[in-house]
């Protein structure tokens, strides 16, 4: 799309003493894409972002922007701009001077700098506050100033470090829309670090799921959500039930897996899996049917209803199936209330075989999705 | 904004809380100051003081060409000391805040700065004498190194010695407030400046110095008032060759010329107040501290 702002990360490792914050990461972010890096705290997403911005230098590996190796290029001269989590506005400068700061250090004459800064403030609808200092602004306004300050250098890549985490729910949703609109307008690459799954799904063209310094999966949001690579991704992105079993039989184009309680599941062919091997697979929560008639069948599981939540557009029923993890079903509101369940009732959850999705990835960590 | 901390707390509580300090300030500062001002307007014939209003004391002080010389000499000391302590205080704080990564080491080094204060001012001052004297350590070192063949006289009993002692005595009063305001600078601000393409020098000039202003101003007030009010260091370290406003005042007091000394004191208070006001005009300390 836009070769100027394409980012190639090749074999990048960052060591902090013995700790591998980022471990041999390869990633290509297409120019003009909206990329969300997601993962729990300490997964290395912020370190990766800071290395792209030049605030950290990789221990090994290279980072290129638009085909140009910037691994060791000075911050501020590599075409990136970073928006900080707490905005990091200069408390002693007016909004105009905050926004015009990078022009000032580049030696742009005062009058020209002020004009450009005011024009930028106008774009984020804050021109009327141009002479105020940041402490007189609300959180949402401060964020828009930070955005204006980052964009005034016309960066090829805008890096956002958890930009929405300090805002309240209402503002967060509004800013989310705003960010997406801005990215469409500017056509530059946005890299957005977050730990909130709906944020990533809603914004991104490319979702990069990280854990323990490595990338577990990098793909489009639909791909990541529907076809998670590993049990960890499935759990972290949410919306999936993760199940485990051992291979019972391998047929042409089909693998039959038996779970601990003896139920059989029909999975698509699992590459390289022979009888006796352990296989993880998942099924989407909104593909489940609940029935009160128990016993028998394939592609199902039994459990006791542990919790029922009405969510407006669907009903969330959590089952205790005797495994460590809850089994969750999202049910259609009308159909659920035609035959509602009770907490403590024993039910059978079943689904069509085609909804079984094999998780080839090995990362089986718990992952705690944020659902807001 | 904030509600009453205790519903039973009466309106009197805040006044009672400030009462002890107010009492001390009134008796220890207020009354003596009023006495001095009063005395400066009383008549004096060289032997006795009469409680009658006169401008004569001020006329004598302001009419004497020595007064201006004294004030200029004292101001010179104050400015030289201010410049040196600011530079030293700023660099020390900068090193402590931005180069020492571990908090423990930071606190340790900070305490090191205070070690000289474990002894009295007088000892710290006097200990310069054997070091700087004609036969002192420094001179003999230079002679033995072959750098000079006669001892340098400028080292001791000179303006140089006075200012050097001031710097030694008062630099900590500069380090503490600057360190304090510098430590409050969010490290993200410096990264943000770096991200905007600022060089280290530009970060220093555009971010760190403006945000350390409060500390510099507070330290300046300490240093200026301390130097302007000193007479002991001037007397000992200049060997009696230089005088400051207060040392002249001391001479007047020794001769029991109280009203003249009072007039000079009032003048000095006015000058120091003007200087502090000037510093406060440059930096709005109240609003900066509230931040």
UniProtKB/TrEMBL annotation, chain A:
The keyword Transport applies. Keywords: ATP-binding, Nucleotide-binding, Transport. SMART domains: AAA. Residues 7-237 form the ABC transporter domain. Pfam families: ABC_tran, TOBE_2. GO terms for molecular function: ATP binding. InterPro entries: AAA+_ATPase, ABC_SmlMolc_Importer, ABC_transporter-like_ATP-bd, ABC_transporter-like_CS, Mo/tungstate-bd_C_term_dom, P-loop_NTPase, Transp-assoc_OB_typ2. PANTHER family: SPERMIDINE/PUTRESCINE IMPORT ATP-BINDING PROTEIN POTA, SPERMIDINE_PUTRESCINE IMPORT ATP-BINDING PROTEIN POTA. This is ABC transporter ATP-binding protein.
TrEMBL record, chain B:
The keyword Cell membrane applies. The chain crosses the membrane at residues 21-42, 77-97, 109-131, 160-179, 256-283. SUPFAM superfamilies: MetI-like. Belongs to the binding-protein-dependent transport system permease family. CysTW subfamily. The lineage of its organism: Bacteria, Pseudomonadati, Pseudomonadota, Alphaproteobacteria, Rhodobacterales. It is found in: Cell membrane. It comes from Tabrizicola soli. It is a multi-pass membrane protein. PANTHER family: INNER MEMBRANE ABC TRANSPORTER PERMEASE PROTEIN YDCU-RELATED, INNER MEMBRANE ABC TRANSPORTER PERMEASE PROTEIN YDCU-RELATED-RELATED. This is ABC transporter permease. Keywords: Cell membrane, Membrane, Transmembrane, Transmembrane helix, Transport. CDD domains: TM_PBP2.
